[in-house]
Structures are given as structure tokens and as C-alpha cells.
Amino acid sequence: MLNFWLVFQVLTILAACADTHAMDASVDTWGYFYTHLMSIWLNRFYIYSCAAFGIGIWICFQFIATKAKKQDEKSTEKLTPSKVTQDVLINGYTMPKTKEVYVAGVKVFYGSQTGTAKGFATILAEAILSLNLPAEIINMRDYDPDDCLAEEATSKNICVFLVATYTDGQPTENAAWFCKWLEEAVNDFRFGKTYLKGMRYAVFGLGNSVYVDHYNTVGKNIDKWLWMLSASRVMTRAEGDCNVAKSKHGSIEADFSAWKARFLARLQALCKGEKKPCSGKCKKGKCKSKGKKSKEGSDHEQRVSEQENTEVEDLFETTSEEELGAEEDGSRNSVIDVEDLGKIMGHMKKAKKECELEEEAGRTGPSQQSSGKNEESERREMITPGLRDALTKQGYKLIGSHSGVKLCRWTKSMLRGRGGCYKHTFYGIESHRCMETTPSLACANKCVFCWRHHTNPVGTEWRWKMDQPEMILREAIENHQSLIKQFKGVPGVRVDRFAEGMVVKHCALSLVGEPIMYPEINTFLKLLHRHNISSFLVTNAQFPVEIRNLEPVTQLYVSVDASTKESLKKIDRPLFKDFWQRFLDSLKALAEKGVTYCGESSASNLTMANVPWHEEVVHFVRELADLIPDYDIACEHEHSNCLLIAHKKFKIDGEWCTWIDYDRFQELVQEYENSRGSKTFTAADYVAKTPHWAVFGSRERGFDPLDTRFQRKNKTKDISGC
């Protein structure tokens, strides 16, 4: 009402002024202004009151607005406490920084035989999608770990494995290749201990506790292998039990539901950037914080512990750098879980003790072993129980008491059309048809770079039971074919290469040990040739007499690991006291055979980081070739980081002929045997022209253009090598 009255008074004054102006238009200008000024002066109280009231209203409005703004800012700071620091200045404008993503999505892998794991995968994926997270269901049969698994180390995905255990503890058919690849990656020194560092995963195994010896074996193995490659568990491995009498929640479906709830809660925490499930000290993903360890969790861990204690003790392979570290500081520098360390070390000590006993017996000589007159039946077997367990876990197929066979990584590579090893480039050997084997796991050296962690038998002569060469060859071929069969249906394997791979055409006697120690090595070589299988024999230059006595061999290699007596002793650690003279005599014996000379830079005994770059190898070999009369660089295989130095006599009419006519070789061998050794031949009699892509200096740099070079996306995970 007061405001209305004040406005009315102002209007009245203005109206009076207007009336005055109209009635007396003749009044002078000064009188006119004087009259109005006096009117305003007389009514000044009302004008002051209106101004004061307006200012008060404005002040109240500003106070309320400021308070509301501060409350909004405070609320925003609670949601994004580092908002100010996250802002960046772009082109003069303040722009909010992109919000960090902690989990990009979830990949759900399943290994299923009857469909249960597949069904669980679908249920889990739907639950993840409800959290507004991407989810992908992956059949392990359709996933190529060789191409894709390393990418998960940087993808910010969470990988979940729902895997069932099938008959006799084996993986399901669709998960067999994935499991085989993962196990071999763990035991392959080229991958390294940190191959999957950065990858996050969780495992839920499906099994039946009725089968006590194999209960959830596959889930346990995948969990262990991933962890050994430095992948990180986001939560403890869980197990579903089809045996309702033993199932923790009454059925495998209930077990899965309980685990799913825990996983989703953990996933939400990870999405917020939480790195640890609790503030306490955790071990192998198991919560150890006070007050947070439920009875259910305790029962579960106790059950897992009991099951793991009943398992056969495992012996994990080490690389040369791990072995070196163990010798230097007395501790094993490898990715081994502290809970497994005791049994692993115990098993390794057992295996090494067996080998030391063998070595000591070998050094005593035949005079101290019943004058060397022990009957064959009284001799011990070369492969001890500890060694058999270790080699079997490393992927070897053992034959009899002293032989073995294993697939080479280049065999797998060429089956998939990704190129062969340097032997394919240098000599025309088809890697997918090459059988890598050895008739003797024993050796006369204890090389510092040996990846067998020095548990193989050692000795200076043969003193074990001996298997017949016919049996060794027969079982070697059978085991090799069984290993090839496992690649049927594997993603990327070429059908034509798979069929060819079932027929062995080459045999690389270079797997491990010293093949030339086998007393019947010449008979074994003859058997290979009679089966139209070429021979590629590697020796460590400690048996010159045996080298001279060798029957025709397609290719003979002598390993040259050092250039001086002192360095050879430090690197190869030979058992022979006259090792240096044996080394020199072996090289002389090799020269008498008239074979090509292969020069390559061998890897260091430390890590792959110490291996020279290919261009460094090229530089070294150029300088070496300049120092060797009548020799020159013939071939190059960049993929394996090596080159071939050959005698110029193999450069016929200006073209290198380092490849081998294997059919012609078999004909010459047959003629040699038919003539009882009188009709001899040399390497020049079965050479073939080297293709242009294999010659040093070619654009392909030794890679067969019929295959496709596979480049790993993550360069830090490259495992290329010889």
C-alpha cells in the first residue's frame, strides 16, 4: 500500500506541473523550472523513501542469488573434487578435461561342452549391459590368443573366463587350443614373464567334485597361467560344483549366481577407479582385512587350499636370466606365487640332485662303474621321474627313456601361412613339415643360456639304458602327428598346410641335449633317410670323433658359442677337461665334411632386450665375411635376426645355390648305401638354386612372399627370434 501511495503522489505532482504549464504558457522559462524544482524539494521525503526501498529490494535479491550460486558450486565440487585442476585452456577458452575411463568393457570367454558355461556367459553379459558397460561374449574356439591376447594388456577391458573341466581334467573342445597356447606361452622364454602385464581377469570354473583328481583343473590352470604371465586378478578364482551334495550353495547355478553378484559389485568399484577391493593386505586376490573376511570366504579359501595341496607338485620352467639370478643371489627371480614357492623349489632341488648324481657318475668314468661291464638291464634310465614331470609340463612328448619330440613355434607359424624359420629361407626346409626331436636328452655342457634350467642329465659318455632307433623314430613320428592334429580347426590354420604337416619331410635333431651322444645315431640317420626324411643334426663341438664317424647327413651344424678358451669355459661350462681341443677338433672335422658355414649372432644369456638389432647383426656379419677368404653373405632372414655365410663355390654362374634338392639327396644316400660306402658324394651334388626373395639384399629380406608377415600390434610384446 505504501508503494502505491508514493507512486500516486509522484503522479499527482507531475500532473500539477503539467496543468500549471498549460494555464500559463506565457511564464518565462526560469519561472517554469523554479516552480518544478520547488515542487520536488517540497516532496523530497517521498522520493528518498522510494529510492531507499528500491535499493533494499536489489540488495536482498543479490544476497539470495549469491547464496544459491555458492550452494551449486559446493554441490559440483563434491561430485568432481578435482574439476578446477582438470580444466585445460584451449584457444583461450577453459574446456573440461575428458573423464578418465577405468573399465572400457568386459569380455566374457567361455569354454563349454554341454552349454552350461555358454549359458552362464549370456546371463553375465546381460547383467553387465544393465550397468551401461559394453559386454562381448567370446567362444574360445573363435579367439586367437596369439594375435589378440596381448592387446588386452592395454585395452582397459576386464576378461572373464567361464571354463568347464571335461574328461580326465582336460579342457572342453572349444577351449583346447586356447589352453594349449597359454600353457606353452608360460613355458616359452621368448614371451617373457611380463607378457600380459596390465591385463585384468577373473576366472569361474565349472566342475564336479565327484572327480576329485580333476576337479576344476582347467579353471585352476588358466588362472595360474595368466597370473604367471603377469596378468592381474580382479578377484579370487571361484568354482562351481555340479555335485549338489558338495556345492557350497546347493547347485552350480547357485554357485554362479553368488559369484556373479560379487563380480558385479567388484566391477562397479573398478569403474569408479578403485584399484583394491579393500584397504588390507591381500594375497592372490584373497581378502585378508580384519572384519571383512566372511565365513563363506574362509570356507572357500580353506577348500581351495586343501584341493591345491592334493595336486601333483609343479615345476615351472625358468629362463636363463632367472637361473643366473638364482645362482647370484640365492633366490629365484621369477613370477612365482609365494604359496607355490616351497613346493617348486623342493621339486627343482630334487631334479637337480638327480642330475648332479648323474654328472658325478659320468665323471668317474667306466673304471669306477664296475669296470664298465654293467649289463644293459642294470643301467639306469636317463629320464628320472622328476625330469619326466618337468618336460611333460613344458610340452614335450617323451619317447622311451631318453628321447623326446616337441613342436617348434615356426611349425605353428607356417601352418598358419605366416612364414617359416631361417632354415626355410636358407635351405628350403618346409617348417610345417619339420619334426623337431632328439634321441638324447643328455648333454656334455651346462651352458649358461640353456633354457632347460640345468635339470637335464649331463655326462661325457653314454651310460644309460638305450632304446632301439626303430622304436624312437616310430614313436617320434606318431607323437609329432598327434601334436599337429591338435591344430585342426584352429583359427588361421591353412587346410593345405595342415594336410602337408601330417607327412614328416624333415627332422631337426636340435631339440635339446646332444643327439650325437646316442650310440646308434648313424642307424637313426639311416632310418630317417629310408623314410625320405632329411636330417638336420646339431652338435655342441665336444665330440670330434663322432663327427668324423657320422654317416651321410643332410645338414650338420656345430654350435660356436665363444671365440676363446676362457669365454667358452664361462659360457658353455663343458664337462670335458680338454674341452678346447675337442672344440677345435670338431671344427676341423666339420671342415672335412665339406658343408656350408652358417654365421649368425646368438642371443645373450640375459634377456631378449640384450639381443642385437638386425642391422647390428648385418654390420657384424659384413665385417666377419671380409675376414674369411672365399666366403660371402648368401642369405638373410630378418624375421629370425640371422644371416647365412656360404662358400663361394655355392655361387654358381653368379647365383647362390644354398637350397637343397632333397629328392636328389635321398637318391645319393641310397646309392651310397647300396655301394657299401664306396660311392661318396658332397654337398655340391644336391644343391638347388636359392630363390630371389631369400638372397641377401632382396626386398623381402628372407620372408617367403607366399606367406603373410604377421606384425604384432603391441611392439613391446614382440617375441620374434631364432
Report on this structure:
With 722 residues, this protein is an alpha/beta fold. Among the domains are: 105-272, Rossmann fold (3-Layer(aba) Sandwich); 385-694, Aldolase class I (TIM Barrel, Alpha-Beta Barrel), CATH 3.20.20.70. It has 23 helices and 20 strands. Strands 3, 4, 5, 6, 7 and 8 form a six-stranded parallel sheet that branches. Strands 9-10-11-12-13-14 form a six-stranded mixed sheet, sandwiched between helices. Strands 1-2 form a two-stranded antiparallel ribbon. Helix 19 (544-548) links the parallel strand 13 and strand 14 (555-558). Helix 7 runs parallel beside helix 8 (217-228) and helix 16 (469-485) crosses helix 18 (521-530). The protein is elongated. The model is unreliable at 1-8, 76-94, 278-345, 362-374, 595-606 and 714-722 (pLDDT under 50).
Would you spell out the secondary-structure blueprint of this structure?
Elements lengths: L1 H22 L5 H14 L1 H36 L3 H4 L1 E3 L2 E3 L9 E7 L4 H14 L5 E5 L5 H4 L8 E8 L11 H12 L12 E8 L9 H12 L3 E2 L4 E4 L10 H20 L23 H15 L10 H10 L8 H27 L20 H9 L3 E3 L3 E4 L2 H7 L6 H6 L6 E5 L30 H17 L9 H7 L4 E4 L11 H10 L3 E6 L4 H5 L6 E4 L6 H8 L6 H15 L20 H14 L3 E7 L4 E6 L3 E2 L2 E2 L2 E2 L1 H13 L12 E2 L34
Parallel strand pairs: 3-4, 3-5, 5-6, 6-7, 6-8, 11-12, 12-13, 13-14
Antiparallel strand pairs: 1-2, 9-10, 10-11, 15-16, 17-18, 19-20
Helix pairs in contact: 1-3, 5-9, 7-8, 16-18
